[in-house]
Acyl-coenzyme A oxidase (Caenorhabditis brenneri), 667 residues
Amino acid sequence: MAFLNKEIRDGDNQDLTEERRTATFDTDKMAEVIYGSEKLARRRREISHAVSRIPELADSRPLPFLDRFEKVTEGTRKLSVLDRHLAELIDVNDNGEALHLYHEVMGMEGHPLALHEVMFVPALIGQASDEQYEKWLGRAKRREIIGCYAQTELGHGSNLRKLETTATYTPSTQEFILHTPTITALKWWPGALGKSSNYAVVVADLIIKDKSYGPHPFIVQLRDEKTHQPLPGITVGDIGPKMAFNGGDNGYLGFDNFRIPRENLLNRHSRVEADGTYVRPPHAKIGHSAMIRVRSHMATGQGWLLGHALTIAIRYSAVRIQGFLEDKSHEVKVLDYQTQQHRLFPAIARAYAFIFCGFETIRLYDQLILDMNSNGNTSGMADLHALTSGLKSVVTHFVGQGIEQARMACGGHGYSMASYISEIYGVAIGGCTYEGENMVMLLQLARYLVKSVELVKSGKANQLGPMVAYLAVADHKVNLATGPDSYVKMFQYISKRQSWKATEKFLKFMENGDSRDVAWNKTAVELTRASRLHTRLYIMETFIRRVESVTDIPVKSALTDLLNLHLNYELLDVASYALEDGFMSSNQMDFIKNQLYSSLEKIRPNAVSLVDSFQFSDMQLRSVLGRRDGHVYQNLFDWAKSSPLNKTDVLPSVTQYLKPMMEKAKL
Ligand SMILES: CCCCCCC/C=C/C(=O)SCCNC(=O)CCNC(=O)[C@H](O)C(C)(C)COP(=O)(O)OP(=O)(O)OC[C@H]1O[C@@H](n2cnc3c(N)ncnc32)[C@H](O)[C@@H]1OP(=O)(O)O
Ligand SMILES: Cc1cc2nc3c(=O)[nH]c(=O)nc-3n(C[C@H](O)[C@H](O)[C@H](O)COP(=O)(O)OP(=O)(O)OC[C@H]3O[C@@H](n4cnc5c(N)ncnc54)[C@H](O)[C@@H]3O)c2cc1C
């Protein structure tokens, strides 16, 4: 039975319409699964529609044609228009609606509030005491003040223990003195710091009576609230153009013995008494909770970014006609080539998997915050830190790969900014670095895995958390034909074996006399492999759980095809781990490959509808190549004609330089 893909409209490209007619599920119903509820999926469409009726909210020109200064100005302009219309467009207390509105209008290139909502406000919520809430949170939420999160320095980002900015307590005045002792201590990178924010949560080394207590968060006013001039003692500015995010003002910040009151240490968990007595937090790393929050949200956000690139590539592949299959009188859609499907469909499966897995992880984070705030229970922190460290690393890496494949799948036009894929790529791969460089974070998860294996080795397997319980399970041969659970078991075997092998190797180096740190470094690559496998297993399990919970039968069936593709693709990718000790047979390898190829065929008729189900409007997508109407060639030609270079037939640079050169050559 075919369902109406809700994207069909009169006048659209016929090849795309044909694809949309073959859908075996309702794209509105699929959107409900992707966005977690009927209400949010519907509200997204309503909000996009409402935005399209406010001309001032549209980009004044295509963003790729703007220079940096114009991008920053354009982002700020739209933000101010949005501010006037906010209450009429969304329920301002609904985060899902707000997130969609910002994606729709502001796009992904950055704006003055980019870090305010994502890190400044959450840092206050997580770290501020009740009195500090009273003083700052309302003002921040009303946007009387704009803030950012200033932690990374020019010389240190990953190793927080060596941050150089100091916050020295002075009991006589009950103040902290913030100071930047060297050039490497300048804060460097924080989003929206350079030009937009007038406040920041600054992470600095707390010093009391010459003793260092490590990094702590402080709320700091940077600029005068009336004039927006930097306050005396503050040096602040923009760090210059980046691979992407060029509508954003990532900045630098220095302090010259800048004084803030004692009350500005965010003191929900730890505090400094008037006399300089330090009161410890219930968990040493509780100050890192703003980072855990962002890491928890990254899988979903990155899944959507991959979804953007795939919407463009799949729609284009259904419109692009090139080459022949059987019938030599008609060229075929490039989407009919198995290689094109193999390039794109596993990435669609991953986009869905990352989104689903992200939702589950966000729930874990929300539970942790509830536990911490209601009864001071921090016992879930280590588990969630390990999980989100692995997740942000694996997801950002695969999303980068998937987006790059989407670009190549669009041939030459993928390379044009008209596709917008390079911008999506630039934004997405920032995630490989921010919130913890990927290798560094994989090694954080590895610490947890090694500890877990050590527990099993010392007969304490009963102390393992549920996510690592498989590390203690005995090996059994697996029959893959019995369904998803057998794939999980095979993956568990592979992941367990790698965690054990890496741990044994690490312990062996120590037995042979290496220090813990040296042994760790000599095993680091194997350890990161263990972390990746463990994380991919988690993603696989959450994907299975989500598909099992879907009630709409046609949607569930289409998702099951995607899930099967994912299971086979993932297992094939890591099969060498199980082949090397004969746990997996070559017959099983053939089985996996054949299942994979048959999944590609099953997914083919639904491919366009699977990406249409993300329901990204043309405005949100900002891609000339990937527009819903599929009129690729006309749209590209119109876009090219609008290039500023085409305003005149003869450029001044030609008259000034090229012509004289050519004339001289004639002499
Ligand atoms: C729409 C787009 C928006 C884009 C927004 C982009 C915004 C970007 C913002 C940023 O990038 S903010 C800056 C982010 N910076 C980082 O992420 C820095 C990365 N480094 C770290 O997080 C830490 O330095 C570290 C690597 C985790 C190490 O921390 P630390 O030196 O303090 O600990 P260790 O001594 O290595 O470990 C001790 C012990 O503590 C455990 N642990 C560490 N962090 C946590 C945590 N957050 N929660 C719980 N436990 C933690 C660690 O696992 C060790 O445990 P054991 O193994 O000893 O048991
Ligand atoms: C787009 C973007 C936005 C950002 N926004 C913010 C923000 O809002 N606020 C903020 O405070 N910061 C922000 N940052 C900074 C970001 O958090 C850091 O760049 C990041 O944490 C990585 O730290 P680093 O730059 O010191 O990298 P480095 O640690 O110097 O990494 C360099 C190399 O060293 C390796 N390495 C480092 N340590 C180890 C180790 N222990 N073991 C093995 N390998 C290691 C890394 O794997 C990497 O290959 C942003 C960065 C970007 C790109």
Q: What stands out?
A: The chain has three domains: 25-109, 146-281, 290-460+490-612.
